């Protein structure tokens, strides 16, 4: 796949009607291989559909409401699952101290409310090293209905739109926030198509440099 098909113009200012490209879980899976991931962290694991595809020595999953229906241990030596909120997980020093500086790839896909994602981001960054990559989900919504701050409101307002039952929440706000307050970070937008009824887009936040190379898979 050519990298151009994945990378959106970072200055793009219009709202597309849909997204194309690779499925986001496949992008994550390819990145885990390409970057020889040793430690992977996923906030918001749900069924495990993304985690199962990741190649890594150690996978750590956090979710207060796991609904696993797949073997997430595939391609891994160890999997640690924590049935709790991300705030609770990150505040547990006994769990976090041993992995500080070790997280190579993180996927933040928990509660779709921007202040939660922002906390998840900063807390994750503390566990990262100088070549880590943090992927954020749902940051480029396609209409107003899906950006509501509750799932119920998004479902109600999205009924007669091309994307019913889609809730990205207002996590898109993290883009202007990071651009304003963290110019040291490089944000890379990766277009991914809707799985099921959803429309999705990833943002890669590299803590070093690179990104364009990373997605030339
Ligand atoms: C969209 S699903 C995750 C999908 C999964 N990442 C994947 O790609 O297959 C969101 C998950 O976030 C979890 N969640 C909700 N609030 C959370 C919180 N405060 N901390 C961590 N996870 C949370 C939900 O239980 C749900 O399973």
Give your account of this protein's structure:
With 217 residues, the protein is an alpha/beta fold. It has a domain of 90 residues: Rossmann fold (3-Layer(aba) Sandwich), CATH 3.40.50. Helices cover 22% and strands 23% of the residues. The protein is built from 6 helices and 7 strands. α4 links the parallel β4 and β5. The longest helix has 12 residues. It starts with 23 loop residues before the first helix and ends in an 11-residue tail after the last strand. The structure holds S-adenosylmethionine (SAM). S-adenosylmethionine (SAM) binds next to β1.
Can you tag this structure with a few keywords?
about 220 residues; alpha/beta; Rossmann fold; seven-stranded mixed sheet; about 20% helix; disordered N terminus; disordered C terminus; binds S-adenosylmethionine
CATH architecture assignment name of the domain at 38-110 and 118-134: 3-Layer(aba) Sandwich
Helical fraction: 10-25%
CATH class of the domain at 38-110 and 118-134: Alpha Beta
What is the helix tally?
6
* CATH fold naming of the domain at 38-110 and 118-134: Rossmann fold
Mean of residue pLDDT values: 82
Number of DSSP E strands: 7
Secondary structure class reads alpha/beta
Strand numbers in spatial order across the main sheet: 3-2-1-4-5-7-6
Ions, cofactors, ligands: which are bound? S-adenosylmethionine
Estimated radius of gyration? 16 Å
| Terminal CA distance | 7 Å
Strand content: 15-25%
Major sheet description? 7 strands, mixed
Q: What is the overall silhouette?
A: globular
Quick one: CATH superfamily of the domain at 38-110 and 118-134?
Vaccinia Virus protein VP39
Write down the secondary-structure element order. Answer: HEEEHHEHEHHEE
Give the uncertain stretches in residue-range form.
1-12, 195-200, 206-217
């Amino acid at each position: 796949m050519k990298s151009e098909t994945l990378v959106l113009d970072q200055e793009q200012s219009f709202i597309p009607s849909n997204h194309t490209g690779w499925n986001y879980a496949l992008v994550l899976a390819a990145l885990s291989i390409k970057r020889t991931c040793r430690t992977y962290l996923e906030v918001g694991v749900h069924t495990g559909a993304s985690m199962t595809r990741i190649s890594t020595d150690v996978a750590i999953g956090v979710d207060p409401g796991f609904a696993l229906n797949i073997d997430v241990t595939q391609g891994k030596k160890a999997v640690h699952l924590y049935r709790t909120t991300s705030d609770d997980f990150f505040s547990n020093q006994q769990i976090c101290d041993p992995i500080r500086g070790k997280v190579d790839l993180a996927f933040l896909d928990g509660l779709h409310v921007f202040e939660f994602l922002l906390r998840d981001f900063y807390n994750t960054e503390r566990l990262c090293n100088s070549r880590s990559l943090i992927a954020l989900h749902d940051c480029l919504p396609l209409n107003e209905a899906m950006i509501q701050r509750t799932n119920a409101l998004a479902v109600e307002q999205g009924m007669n739109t091309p994307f019913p039952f889609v809730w990205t929440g207002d996590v898109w706000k993290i883009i202007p926030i990071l651009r304003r307050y963290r110019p040291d970070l490089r944000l890379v937008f990766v277009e991914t198509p809707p799985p099921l009824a959803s429309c999705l887009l990833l943002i890669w936040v590299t803590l070093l440099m690179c990104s364009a190379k990373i997605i030339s898979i």
